[in-house]
Amino acid sequence: MHARSILTAGSVLLALAAAPSTAPAQEVTLRAASFLPLTVNYGAIFKRWVDEVNKRGKGTLQITVVGPEAIPTFEQWNAVKSGVVDMHSGPPAYYVGTLVEGEAAILADLPVAEQRKNGALAYLNKLHNEKMNVWLLTAYADGVGFHAYTTKPHKPGAKPFDGFRLRSTPNFKRFFEDLGATTVTMPPGEVFTGLERNVVDGYGWPRWGIQDMGWTKLTKFRYDPGFYNVIVNIMVNLDRWKKLDKKQQDFLTEMSIWLEGEWPKWRDEINAKEADIQEKGGVKVVNMGPEFRKRAHDIYWEALAKLSPRHIPELRKLLTK
Fold this sequence. Notes:
Layout: H1 2-18, E1 28-34, H2 41-56, E2 61-66, H3 76-82, E3 87-90, H4 112-118, H5 120-132, E4 134-140, E5 146-150, E6 165-168, H6 170-178, E7 182-185, H7 188-196, E8 202-206, E9 221-227, E10 232-237, H8 238-243, H9 246-280, E11 284-287, H10 290-307, H11 312-319
Parallel strand pairs: 1-2, 1-3, 6-7, 6-8, 9-11
Antiparallel strand pairs: 3-10, 4-10, 5-8, 5-9
């Protein structure tokens, strides 16, 4: 009887040892890098999301953020790829040399919420897993277009910027050249002086932020409609993502969906404010018609397809109407 009691007690102990732990997981803190300071437009949006994550995630997950003062902007994508930081908020243009397909998102006709539903986000995430070693949580800034801005009026006809020198970036360089411009690569910090000294006659920039840069008083014209989308991805280092438990992963996914729902309201408010700032600053809007945007997109889709003939055509089907 005594031996049987010992066996029974031993069986209970073995069963307890084999049973999964019901103890709650410890709160985890992820360190993120933002490509812009948290006080500046798209950086401020990321902070707004992080604040909500931290408010709702007590006991589950928290995020701390450093900006370009801690990790230079153009080094951040590699920092999340290699695991120096756990998360990163930044545009795909900065790592186009590693993942050219990421640029397809800036040409999307569909908001990120719809991309989640139709499989486009999952397709992009798979490519980010394979080539960037990151999990693509979500993206924001869709619906904020880029514009051409000039200090002098355009010319009528197919080459409206013939003879113009425009500050450009690689992703719309071909478009500006197709419009007749000579493109100039110039850091944002040098654009004001470039405009002031007539080194450039204009620039490409999103709807947001020309006032922040001090360019409004030197800018006379903005050309609508906007083309492309500003896209800021939120990514987690893939090895770190896999170490999170299911509750933590699900929480980050839920908060990503929350951002996708809130973003259109935030965007429309800021778009209206920025338009008002430009109007009061004397920036005249020139409507170039729907073909202007289509021309920009067709040129870049074609260029991307040459670089990634396998994936870009598939992404174009998912991202366009």
